[in-house]
Design brief:
alpha/beta, NAD, single chain, binds nicotinamide-adenine-dinucleotide, Glu/Leu/Phe/Val/Trp_DH_dimer, Rossmann fold, Aminoacid_DH-like_N_sf, six-stranded parallel sheet, oxidoreductase, 2 domains, Leucine dehydrogenase, six-stranded mixed sheet
């Protein structure tokens, strides 16, 4: 795997190209120790196959931790598709999604997909034409639909837990939160934060979207450039991965980082560097697990009440990890990873 910028410890990786439609992508199964590997299907403009493969491997590994930490009997996996411009036409896209479904079907249920950045509940309908190993179809088709509002619930819970732990804030009233990225999840985070009385700054590369969300919820839209280092109590990265590099840390003015983005830290030591600078980093895979609880319910047979209960448990769990880390002087990321791995090891024993 030389040239691939990630640790390779995965059970199975499929790189595919459907010659009839041109659909090209990667399915990475990191672990099935706890159950079928589950994680969304991402469509992105990767610079090439190596970049797509690296992303799939990283995201699949993060799903193993996320599903374990959320107490789900699901392993970790992820699929990515290369956006070559051929997904724009609706009919071509549906045919490509059907081809992706055929690849997933060949995996025999070891991997279950759902929507992620760049894909939609409607795309899952195309996939379902070729496999039953798919969740998150539209509600009118019997699926649970877009998981984003549930992701926003655990993200907002993680922001509250972080603010309580680091700032001693009993509520979010008057806490200043900066939300970077106001797409599917970020806009719901903004709405929930405003409902709870937080002051919200936001930024998005899509400037009209940022303006619209700011006006709708009474938040302040700022330019993306310089946003990370704006004056704020909590930074909520809700765009794409790797937003925070070590060279940003000295300039950060926030005390807490908690958001929806998967893998928002650029390097393996960034969580420690943040802790050294007095910034509490709430592990992304704890903060953003609401979505997989919501769509994983289709695979695990949870009803709505069980989903609600598990969302509340996940938020309480995040607060518990932060408290345990504070009590022992550990970094929350290390506590959460060790706990998630221990659950997998126990299942594998
Ligand atoms: N959708 C879910 O339920 C879910 C669940 C878990 C994790 N996540 C993660 O949360 C993040 C957001 O997911 P989403 O579904 O809201 O995606 P999305 O594509 O709907 O929204 C992302 C937003 O970020 C903006 N953006 C992209 N790059 C940016 C940058 N460099 N600076 C500022 N803005 C930028 C985009 O314009 C867009 O508005 C992703 O990292 C995703 O993997 C999502």
């Amino acid at each position: 795997m030389s040239g691939i910028d990630t640790e390779f410890e995965h059970e199975q990786v499929e790189v595919f190209r459907d010659t009839a439609t041109g659909a090209t992508g990667v399915v990475a199964i990191h672990s099935t120790a706890l159950g079928p590997a589950m994680g969304g299907l991402r469509l992105a403009a990767y610079s090439g196959l190596t970049a797509a493969l690296t992303d799939a491997l990283r995201l699949a590994r993060a799903m193993t931790l996320k599903n374990s930490a959320a107490g789900l009997d699901l392993g970790g996996g992820k699929a990515v598709l290369l956006d070559d411009g051929g997904w724009a036409d609706a009919d071509a896209r549906a045919a490509r999604m059907h081809a992706v479904g055929a690849v997933i079907e060949q995996l025999g249920g070891r991997y279950v997909t759902a929507e992620d950045v760049g894909t939609t509940p409607e795309d899952m309908v195309g996939i379902a034409g070729a496999t039953r190993h798919v969740a998150g179809q539209p509600v009118e088709r019997g699926g649970r639909g877009d998981p984003s509002p549930w992701t926003a619930r655990t993200v907002t819970g993680a922001i509250s837990a972080g603010a309580r732990q680091r700032l001693g804030a009993d509520s979010l009233v008057g806490v200043r939160v900066g939300v970077l990225g106001v797409g599917h999840v970020g806009r719901h985070v903004v709405a929930l934060l405003r409902e709870q009385g937080a002051e919200v700054l936001l930024a998005d590369l899509d400037t009209p979207r940022a303006q619209d969300v700011a006006e709708r919820y009474g938040a302040h839209a700022l330019p993306v450039a310089g946003f990370l280092t704006s004056e704020m109590d909590v930074l909520a990265p809700c765009a794409l991965g790797e937003a925070i590099h070590e060279e940003h840390i000295a300039e950060l003015r926030c005390k807490v980082i908690a958001g929806a983005a998967n893998n928002p830290l650029a390097g393996p030591d960034t969580a420690h560097a943040l802790a050294g600078a007095g910034v509490l980093y709430v592990p992304d895979f704890l903060a953003n697990c609401g979505g997989i609880i919501h769509v994983g319910a289709e695979v695990l047979g949870f009803d709505d009440a069980e989903v609600e209960r598990r969302i509340d448990v996940a938020v309480a769990h995040t607060a518990g990890v932060l408290a345990q880390a504070a009590a022992t002087g550990a970094v929350p990321q290390d506590v959460a990873v060790a706990e998630a791995r221990a659950r997998i090891a126990a299942a594998s024993a």
